[in-house]
Amino acid sequence: MDIELIGRAQHGDEQAFASLTVAVGDRLHTVAHRILRDTDLAEDATQQALLAIWRDLPTLRDPARFDAWSYRLLVRACYAEGRRTRRWTPNLRLLPADGPSGGEGLASVVDRDQLERGFRRLSIDHRAVVVLHHYLDLPLDEVAETLGVPVGTVRSRLHHAMRGLRAALEADARPTVREAIQ
Amino acid sequence: MRTEPDVTRVVRSWLEEGVTELPDRVLDNVLDQLPATRQRRPLWSARRFLDMNSTLKLAIAAAAVVAVAVAGINLLPGWGVVAGPPAIPTATPTVTPSHEPSPTVPYVVSGPVSGPGSTEVAPGTYRMRGPGASPAGWPSTVIVTIPDEWEANSVLRGGGLTWSNDLGQPLARLNFSSVGNLVADPCASRGRRDAMLEPPLGPSVDELVAGLRSLPVFEFTEPVDVTLDGWAAKRLQVTHPAGCGEALLWLTPPDAGESWGISSSEYWHSTLWVLDVDGLRFVVIAAYELDARGHVRLGLERMVESIDIEP
After folding, report:
1. I need a labelling partner for B238 at 20 to 30 A (CA). Which of B24, B30, B53, B128 fits?
2. Does the pTM exceed 0.90?
């Protein structure tokens, strides 16, 4: 990250912050989407996180820690969005131009569906740990620092989350509710 | 039985999928709000405050209170921080604000909007147009009136009008949409494009109604022949299946390289009017949360009654 850009934004330079936003916006949105599993909520969370970053940037003592610090604000925004909109609303939403294609990668269609269901059953706390560790490849101590919790807590949450996802994957051998009622 | 490394590999692969780009309108919303969002100074600089005289302290304290109040208002849900159509450049309520056509989203041509960079809407009459220079599947203009009793925190988002409560929780929504093709299994699709109806949906009202009613798991009522603003329409209601979460029902026709989808949700009651506007199929959706009180539903009905569609 451009330390000089961060420094200028810390002193209220809106142009510098605009450049910073362009640089980090996609990355924050990508993480928010993986945690919340909803395009609208992820957009709102990213927007809130970017405003929080602008608001609190002068309090960031070490600009080199910007990435971890911004993820912490993003996860907070994800908590807020997750609480605020438990009930989804009918909506018109923009779809990604390049949706995932079936059959590619390690996750099969069935796996994806089971993972989606399993992941949605996890709390935001657990989802955040999975995404930060397995998507961003952050070591557990950095995940702990980002979330502001002890490493032991991160390890415990990751274990619980992965156990839940494994159970969801292994449930594919059992009939789904829809199959069962037909 | 999968080994732990197997599960980790599958989870990592799955996490790689999905959206990666933040829409420009979200960035625009953020940048629009910067002037009204005061930066917090670090605590250690507050020491300078001790060196000031009492009058200056009081003046700065008063200014800080005002700034916090302004920032607080701007951060209230539904007051400018909600992602939505492009900003409408006007600072005060007006009758005909100008706006450049958006290439991707339905937008308001004119109406009593308030606040620069805001997506809030106030009671009054709005003229809306579809996305793009030649909006696929949209009539030339849709006019709708938000009744007086709708709160000022109603917001526009993705071409819909929303009535939210003080906490920003939506209570009712009115959407307008064209329909390209239906999602084959809305509950299972999760928005993936590889689950569209095959063969694709035809262009007529009857084909859409039949297609909707054939969707798995979803239950649509028998269509009723009605008119809306004088246009022939089929009206039907939908019950969202329990446990289905957010379900994508259809995609709009491809336009400007992007597609929009209409999603349905649990705990909401939705009524659809599938209209024939001079041979053009167009859909109006009125939805309210099941807990919404009578005056919310009544307001929604009045909005539907106010719709004026110009072909």
Report:
1. B128
2. no
Q: Identify the residue with better confidence: A119 or B70.
A: A119
Number of neighbours of residue B3 by Cβ within 10 angstroms: 9
Is-contact B156 B128, C-beta < 8 A?
A: no
Burial class of A166 by CB neighbour count within 10 A (0 to 12, 13 to 18, 19+) = buried
Of A47, A59, A116, Cβ closest to residue B29: A47
How far does the CA of residue A15 sit from the closest CA of chain B (Å)? 9
CB contact under 8 A, A170 and B40: no
- Residues of chain B contacting A31 with CB distance shorter than 8 Å: none
pLDDT digits (tens, 9 = 90+) for B221-279: 999 999 999 999 999 998 777 766 667 788 777 653 445 566 666 667 889 999 999 99
Query: Tens digits of per-residue pLDDT, A131-171?
Result: 999 999 999 999 998 888 888 999 999 999 999 888 888 77
Instruction: Find out whether the peptide bond into B199 is cis, omega within 30 degrees of 0.
Output: yes
C-beta atoms of A115 and B18 within 8 A? no
Separation CA A54–CA B37 (nearest Å): 8
pLDDT for res B3: 74
Cβ–Cβ below 8 Å for A93 and B217: no
Spell out which residues of chain B touch residue A61, defining contact as CB-CB under 8 Å: 42
Q: How far B188 CA lies from chain A's nearest CA (Å)?
A: 7
Paired tokens of A47: 């927007």
With pLDDT > 90 as the criterion, what percentage of chain B qualifies? 17
Kindly state whether A159 is in contact with chain B, defined as any CB-CB distance less than 8 angstroms: no
Q: Give residue B62's identity as a one-letter amino acid code.
A: A
CA distance linking residue A131 with residue A28, whole number of Å: 12
